[in-house]
Amino acid sequence: MKGKLTLAQIRVILLLAAVLMIVLTYFLVFQRNMNQADEFETKMRAENKRIEYLTSLEKKVSDLEIYTSLFTGEIDGFIKSFPVKLTQQKSLYLIYRMMLDSGIDIESITAGNEAPFYHKGRVLHSEADQKQIQQEAEKEEPLSEIGVVSMEQMIGSKSNYTVHVSGATKDIYKALDWIRDSEEKLSIGSVNLQFDSSTGKLKGSIGINFYSMLGNGVPYSDPDIGEFTFGLDTVFGEFHNE
User: Fold this and answer.
1) What is the rounded CA–CA span in Å between residue 145 and residue 219?
2) Are 156 and 134 in contact, with CB atoms under 8 Å apart?
């Protein structure tokens, strides 16, 4: 009869429909899932590599903890070797002791401003860092002078004094050695000396840095200045604050 499909035609149509469904299923479902599976596998490989790397570090960390524990006592001792604070009185006394022990003559002293060199686990290298920390510190609770805190909370300060000196070469060397070997935490900031032909001595300035560490639990003790002589042709008649 006209308008009716034969059985063979129906079979062909059903077969084509089945093929179409298979094709659509492949592209719309299977292929999409395969792409997601590939992405997942790629991520898994990357994560497995990261896990392997972290696992390899575990032993190194354990070894490092054992290694650093051997130096815990030395580190604590080094931290406690810093004074909790360094007053101007004590700084001047140390300079006075340097003058007596080395034999140099001191003409005047100029004290610079105190600046942080260490703040809560961070060593400050630039003036910009120091200014930023000083501004932040003004808003913070001050640490107790005799409190003990972790290194991540300690505050280290540095004060610079420019000492104008004259002396024989051997005495200047003694003064520099005195700064280097001092039990206090000192360092040489600058040396600017010239030979004075009229006296046969070196004359100029030595910059000395004084360091302190607040939060290490070391109580402050005033220096014994019983032998500290004011005036009488000494430097301490010419002391300047910047």
Assistant:
1) 7
2) no
Mean of all residue pLDDT scores within the chain: 81
CA distance 138 to 132: 10
Q: How far is Cα 97 from Cα 175, in angstroms, rounded to an integer?
A: 10
Contact between residue 212 and residue 82 where contact means Cβ atoms under 8 Å apart:
yes
Is it the case that residue 126 has pLDDT exceeding 70?
Answer: yes
Predicted model pTM: 0.65
How far, in Å, are 40, 122, 199 from residue 45 at the CA level?
9, 37, 78
3-state secondary structure of 207: strand
Q: Is 186 exposed, middle or buried, given 0-12, 13-18 or 19+ CB atoms closer than 10 A?
A: buried
155, exposed or middle or buried, with CB in 10 Å at 0-12, 13-18, 19+?
buried
Q: What is the DSSP letter of 242?
A: -
The pLDDT of 87-106, averaged and rounded, is 90
Distance, C-alpha 87 to centroid of its chain? 24
List phi, psi (to 5°) of 116: -75, 140
| Residue 157 three-state SS | strand
Tokens of 125: 């290298």
The residue type at 167: G
Say how many C-beta atoms besides its own lie within 10 A of residue 98's C-beta.
22
